[in-house]
Structures are given as structure tokens and as C-alpha cells.
Design brief:
The protein is α/β, with parallel strands linked by helices. Helix 8 packs parallel to helix 9.
Length: about 450
């Protein structure tokens, strides 16, 4: 039983075990413990190649907020991709990895002085200006970078309201209404030591069509003409953000990445030409659409609670601390029993976590074998984006490791947190540090 939402290299062994990257998930679980996140390198590389079929690699800026680690930055560098960061921590991760900072774009609605100072010292390539106050900060810091103005184009993507970022009522960017975006371009063009190069917009996430992006591009092209007429500036770069959706269940169909990227380049050329403007260099910021389908989360079943006539609850050893999306957004997933892929998945059950919350669920109405029981391994696909990166230590549960697989090899790229890690920052009433050895046992495995 293999579905299209599993990683590219997924297959089933004759014994019915799920293999990804030629690594047996059941054997890997015995070695590293559960829960863990399995990352398929080949899937990531293939999806990156799809974007790069339409765009130069340096114009594909991976959105680090989806998932970022030192090893992933190294992989991005190997693929010659760019990187989009939105915090000092993400920037520090890239710097520690030795990622070329000239290929980094820094955006965010509330960058601090210290973050911009770190960006200056790192030699960052581009900064997306999000508010008028930030212009003053850039001047104080004395940064030398290419600058883009983030625009809220008044376009609403068909997605959860928390991930709609292009509508007028948004904390991000400068609105087209009342001329704020145009005024921002004039001000940004005067920042000493920097070059205004273009416009940035991000209309939302989990978009399965390009309509909203195409409308946004049309409005940005009109703004570019106004900027030329008002200030004599040229928009040489157009960053249309990310937001392409992925399939989290086998009933969904995700956009073709290569065709989508090529379409955006074409649409930009058409609209800019209509205003007698040269074709801009189009940049994209894929996060979820690059990394989301490349990972699966693996859990071990502990308790199965069958309530006749009501529901069956299948409890696993993770939950909302490693994937908050179902509780936060109502995100839908599906699950497979990784050690019995050939077994009929014919019973509807709710997969829940171990946290002390009634809303701690991972999959509602999951189809599982009717005899699912303690010790079974559950695999939830399409968890590469916004799972580990949004993980917490709720109930003081340590975060799982991330294991990259490729050609039969498994490499831990983020280690499992331990109980000692959780206690390391705690202090006693007198402010003193705790002893190095935990006294209550280690519950990280």
C-alpha cells in the first residue's frame, strides 16, 4: 500500500515494511527510538530540480521557516539554492552552516536592531523592508544590501485565515491603499549604501491554484510603473513569495512545481510588458512545497481505546508537541502502519497524542487495520513543513530527532532532545544551576 503523498523513494518490502530511501522504517525505529522525523533527501533534491527547471537556483529562495537546520543549509548550498530567513535564529543557523550569505534574503515584520546588525556583519544579500520604522533602523545599522519593499496587494488566498498574508488587513508589508507602498519605495530608494531592486509579496499558503498570485503580480506591475513615473526607479526583481500547496492526504492533488514556476515567470513578463517595463528577475520562496512531502513522522502505538458505538482512539508517543498543525489549523493527515503496509486499512480511528489536552490529535478518521495495537509503528506522511519547526516542549516532552535517509544510509541531522536538555536552563529558587545529572530519569526515548 503506497500512496502518492509518501516520499518519492517510498516502497514496500516483501515483508510489508515501509522503506524510504532504501531504509526500513521498522529497523530504523528500533535503532533511534520513537517518535522521529524521517527526511528523504532524494525527494527534496527532486523538488528543488523542478523549481530550477524554470528559474536559476539562486532565485529559488528556500523558506527556512518551514524547517531549518545546519545540515539542511548545507544541502541547500550543495544545490546552489538561495535561502529566505525571517529571524536572527534562522540567520545564525545559516551562518553556522557556512551558507553563502549573499544568497540570503531577510524578511520579517519586526526585525530588531540586533538582527539587522547581525545581517550586516554576515554580509546578507537582500533585505525585504516591511515598515517605515525599519527604514530608519537600516540607516542606523549602516547595512549594505539590496532592498525590496514588501507589498500587501489586497489579494486573499483560499486558505486558513491565519496563513493569508496578502490581504489589506495584515501585519505584513505596505498596503497599496492610500499610496503607502509607493511612498515606501521612494523612502527605501534613499537608504544610504543600499540599492532598491524590487518588490516582494506573499499572498498566503497552501494555495492549489495560481489565480491569487497572478492577480497580485498584475497589481505589482502597476505599482512598478507608478514607481518609475514618480521616482525614476526600476523594479528589476519581483519576489512573489511562496505558498504553493501540497497534498497531505491521498484525496488531494498538488500543483506541478515546474509548470507553476514557469507560469509565474510568464505572467510577470506579460504584465510588466503591458506597462512598458522590462521583464523583472522573478524570485520565489518555496517552503512547504519543497520540504513538506519529503518527510514522514514515525510514532509507536501505546494504548488503543475502543469505545463501542462512539470511536476508537489510537494513542501514540508524540502528538501536538511535535505537530501542532491539526490542533492549530485543523490540518488533515492520514496514517499507515509502517510494519504492515499490506494489511487492509479498513477501520476508522482517531490518532491522538500523549499530551494532557483533549485537542491533542494528529489524524481524525484515519484508516488503519482493525487489529492495530500496542507496539505498531504509525507513519504520518507529508510532515516535513511546519512540524518540527513549530515543535514545543509542552508537558515537558522532548522534541524528536530528524533523520535523513539516502541510498540506504540514515544520518541524524537533528539529535533527539533529552530530559537533561529540558532541565539545562532551569534554575533553583536561589538562582543556581541544577546538577548535570537528572534525578527523575530520562524520558527522551
Amino acid at each position: 500500500m503506497i500512496t502518492g503523498i509518501l516520499p518519492l523513494t517510498a516502497r514496500t518490502s516483501p515483508e510489508g515494511h515501509l522503506l524510504v530511501g532504501e531504509v526500513d522504517i521498522c529497523e530504523l525505529a528500533d535503532r533511534v527510538g520513537t517518535p522521529f522525523v524521517l527526511f528523504d533527501r532524494a525527494s527534496f533534491e527532486e523538488r528543488a530540480r523542478a523549481y530550477c527547471s524554470a528559474l536559476p537556483p539562486e532565485r529559488v529562495l528556500y523558506a527556512g521557516k518551514a524547517f531549518l537546520s545546519v545540515a539542511l543549509c548545507e544541502l541547500l548550498d550543495d544545490l546552489d539554492l538561495g535561502l529566505d530567513v525571517c529571524s536572527g535564529g534562522e540567520l545564525a543557523t545559516a551562518v553556522r552552516a557556512g551558507f553563502p550569505c549573499g544568497r540570503i534574503l531577510f524578511h520579517g515584520n519586526n526585525k530588531s536592531f540586533d538582527e539587522l546588525l547581525a545581517a550586516r556583519d554576515a554580509g546578507i544579500g537582500r533585505v525585504v523592508v516591511d515598515c517605515f520604522e525599519e527604514i530608519e533602523l537600516l540607516e542606523r545599522v549602516g547595512i549594505h544590501a539590496k532592498l525590496l519593499v514588501r507589498v500587501t496587494p489586497g489579494v486573499e488566498a483560499h486558505a486558513h485565515e491565519y496563513v493569508q498574508t496578502g490581504k489589506e488587513d495584515s501585519k505584513f508589508g505596505f498596503s497599496l491603499a492610500e499610496g503607502a507602498a509607493l511612498d515606501a519605495i521612494g523612502a527605501v530608494d534613499k537608504v544610504p549604501g543600499c540599492d532598491f531592486v524590487g518588490l516582494h509579496a506573499h499572498v498566503g499558503s497552501q494555495m492549489f491554484g495560481l489565480e491569487a498570485l497572478e492577480v497580485a503580480i498584475a497589481r505589482l506591475a502597476k505599482l512598478a510603473r507608478s514607481a518609475r513615473d514618480a521616482f525614476g526607479v526600476s523594479v528589476s526583481e519581483l519576489n512573489v513569495g511562496g505558498g504553493l500547496g501540497i497534498a497531505h492526504t491521498s484525496t488531494e492533488t498538488q500543483p506541478d512545481l515546474a509548470q507553476s514556476a514557469a507560469r509565474l515567470v510568464s505572467v510577470a513578463g506579460t504584465h510588466f510588458a503591458a506597462h512598458d517595463l522590462p521583464q523583472p528577475a522573478v524570485f520565489v520562496e518555496p517552503g512547504r512545497s519543497l520540504v513538506g512531502p519529503c518527510a514522514v513522522s514515525v510514532y509507536r502505538v501505546g494504548v488503543v481505546k475502543r469505545i463501542p458505538g462512539v470511536r476508537t482512539y489510537v494513542s501514540v508517543d508524540g502528538g501536538m508537541s511535535d505537530n501542532i498543525r491539526p490542533a492549530l489549523y485543523g490540518a488533515q493527515y492520514e496514517a499507515h502502519v509502517a510494519g504492515r503496509m499490506h494489511a487492509p486499512h479498513d477501520m476508522a480511528a482517531t490518532v491522538v497524542g500523549k499530551h494532557c489536552e483533549s485537542g491533542d490529535f494528529l489524524v481524525q478518521d484515519a484508516l488503519l487495520p482493525s487489529d492495530v495495537g500496542p507496539g505498531d509503528l504509525l507513519c504520518i506522511p507529508a510532515t516535513g513543513a511546519y512540524t518540527y519547526s513549530m515543535a514545543s516542549n509542552y508537558n515537558r516532552v522532548p522534541r524528536p530527532p530528524v533523520v535523513m535517509v539516502s541510498a540506504g544510509q540514515a544520518t541524524t541531522i537533528v539529535a533527539r532532545e533529552t530530559t537533561e536538555d529540558l532541565l539545562r536552563l532551569d534554575r533553583r529558587l536561589d538562582g543556581s544551576a541544577l546538577a548535570a545529572t537528572p534525578t527523575a530519569g530520562d524520558f527522551s526515548a
